[in-house]
Amino acid sequence: MEWINLLAILLSPVVAVSITLWYQKRAETIKTKKNLFFVLMKYRRSINIPLEYVEALNSIDVVFQNQKEITGLWAQYCDNLHSKQADLEKRGHLQIDLLSAIAKHLGYERLKQTQIDRYYEPQLYQSQQARQQEISDELLRTLKASENYGTPRKEDDSKKG
Description:
By secondary structure, the chain is mainly alpha-helical. It has one domain. It contains six helices and no strands.
């Protein structure tokens, strides 16, 4: 009976530390998944796609490596993003399916696809984006119409000595 007590005394700290480390790893994994999901939700309909969103998309295969449904949906969405003939309606559906699968995996069972699809963007942002695009297009048109666009500058003959 004494050896059982001795074994329990020796193994108790090992078991306790192992459980603590397992729990911390699990909590960190869940936190990483939730942070990725929140970034994807935050920028899901943004006109200007921030780097943080791109990085989150590119992390899906690692963060959700054991969830084949999610990585499969990400692969479909990624293929659509790379498509030369963009089907924007299909892209939107694929994005919603991906976000919905991640939400379900994280325990957000009552989050509906209609809620994921709902997104607020002030009219001011849309107007600023349209104005910025007009300025950019006009600048490019002006530069292309100028004589020196796309040709290297010639050295000034008077400076040659």
